[in-house]
Design goal:
By secondary structure, this protein is an all-alpha fold. The chain is built from 1 helix and no strands.
Length: 30
Amino acid sequence: MSSLQISIVHIKNRYDEIVMNKAFKALIRF
């Protein structure tokens, strides 16, 4: 794996984390 691929995977994981957090908080409000 190249360093570019590794950083893309990192960004994707970070993005997924943020999206899941927002979805979870939205669920708690309902």
